[in-house]
Amino acid sequence: MNAKLAAGGAILIALTVVALFPSLVAPFPRDYSDTLRYIDTPAGREWRYAPEAPSEHYPWGTDKYGYDMLTRLAWGLRWTLASVAFTAFLRTVLGGGIGVMRALLRFGERHDRGFTPLAGIPSFVMVFFVIFPVTINSPLNSAGLFLYQCLAMTVFNLGGPIAAMSAKAALVLRSSFVEAAVSAGAGKRWILARHLMPYLAEEFWELFAEQTVDVLKMVGRLGIFFLFIGGTTRSYDPPILTSTKGEVAGLIGLYRARLMSSRWLLAYPLTVYMTVLIGFRLFASGLRERERRNRRSIGA
Amino acid sequence: MTTTDRSAQAARIALRTAAAPLAAMLLASTPLLITMDRYGAISFTPGRALATIGQWLAGLADGSSFMYTIGKTEWSVLKTMPQFALTSYLYLALPGAIGMGAGLCLGLWTGRGKGGRIEAVGHTLYAMPDFVLALLLQLAVVFVLDAWGIKLGSISYNPWDGPVLGLAVVVMAFYPLLRTWKEAARAARDASASDYIAYARSKGLPERLVRMRHVGAAIVPKMEADLPLSMAVMVASMFIVEYVFALPGVARLLFTAGFPGWNPGWMEGYQYRVVVLCLITTMGVYAAAWGTLRLILAGVRRVLTGER
Fold first, then answer.
1. Which CATH number fits domain A3-26+77-298: 1.10.3720, 3.40.50, 1.20.58, 1.20.120?
2. What's the pLDDT at B62?
3. What is the average pLDDT across B88-112?
4. List of chain B residues whose C-beta atoms are within 8 Å of the C-beta of residue A132
5. Given CB atoms, is A7 within the 8 Å cutoff of chain B?
6. Which ranges constitute the DSSP H helices of chain B?
7. What confidence tens digit (pLDDT) does each residue in A71-116 have?
8. CB–CB contact B129 A217 (8 Å)
């Protein structure tokens, strides 16, 4: 195992532990909030109002509704990790599978796609259109909404995984041992099971790792536009939009307007988000490196 | 590529271009496919989406499809859209050209050696999401303002005739720069190891000339091939940059005028008319910026090789 893979794996394991057992790091119960409190000092009683800056009592501060940021982020992390891992898994299995089949069925064909104006609409915008009607004050339960959002993030991003796996599979199909198998009468099913998949197993892992980084970016972009994984809660009086589950990337979008004041509200979600990103990135990079070494060792 | 291949590709591009407005109409109608009543019950309403598309098509004749409202004021897309499109185009093409130019120079420079750490740093930075970069830049400016008590510039603005916003250009140029750098360095290394470069060197040509005429010329086709992917990244960043820095471009218009009732809001304020036109215009802006960058790359190639 190389250093990047080890470091990425260690970060992801630590984050997963926090996501599974948030009470380990969260200093307060999940829905605890305190907008007004007092502390007794030698100078007398001091009143503290939300949002509170980071202090001994609230290590990462509170938002303006008195929610402790560390508690909120610890509980929200599971939604970030789950959405990233599940969507990346779906993209890898569906996109990768279709890519391999495409390469297998169109063996030898050239595909030059050229310019297309449709590329002018980014995939996260398409996902935005699809999830917008059901994300704000969603009537779906948490699991249903989560599934719907993950499916939307998968369907509109299958192009990349399909193209990547198709290209990699085509490369293997062009190799001499596959040609020899074909000339010896091997059918497509045989080639897929005995020649393609053993070579592509590692590629699927790498594709999964790359997709995690990509999904994390998409979740963050949607959060900028107030569409959060797990739902957006809208209250009418006062009119507020907030992240229902406190998903980490969503909190960045939610608190980005706090740039001029209460900067900890933006700084801590950004830090956690970047830690998640670095973890996935190192993991992906480590897998790539391992694959390169493996190829070198078998002379491929 | 043979003449038949070229004709087939041209036909495919023409077909996709013709299908683009249809795709925009369908995409803009997706929020109307699902309706939620006041009690939270969801129903699938394709009829509503189709009726809206029909109304929009009918409205093209009498001009009503070109009208939208912001607050209580009614605007015509025909009058306002060119300005929004121009802003988006400028923030796409200008930073794209700057980023790709700088990436080409960096690639030529670092492509002489093995690359090593400096390229690894660039590669790592490329993974940073655009909205994180935008927010970090804004945070940095705020910290500098606080620390020094001086005004370096605005971190977001909204005037039509203001100067080009520096931070937005930095974010937009960041990704094409890093992507081009990576591709150019790789292409430069590949080209440096090729026979014709060795032959040019053995003939005693100055190193600068070899790098310009031969290595540089070998990089440009790779950049042209990579342009669709670079553009895809840039367009995604454009949506974020326009929204975060409050730039008056098409992407921002789409979210502010198309979904006016969402903060706080729901579907009652959705303006299909302006959304579909924003999507079509975005595709047009993308095509124009793509064409511009292709022309610039062709120009660069001519300058490097001395071709006419």
1. 1.10.3720
2. 92
3. 91
4. 31, 259
5. no
6. 3-29, 46-62, 77-110, 116-126, 130-148, 166-192, 195-202, 207-209, 217-244, 250-258, 272-305
7. 999 999 999 999 999 999 999 999 999 999 988 887 545 555 567 8
8. yes
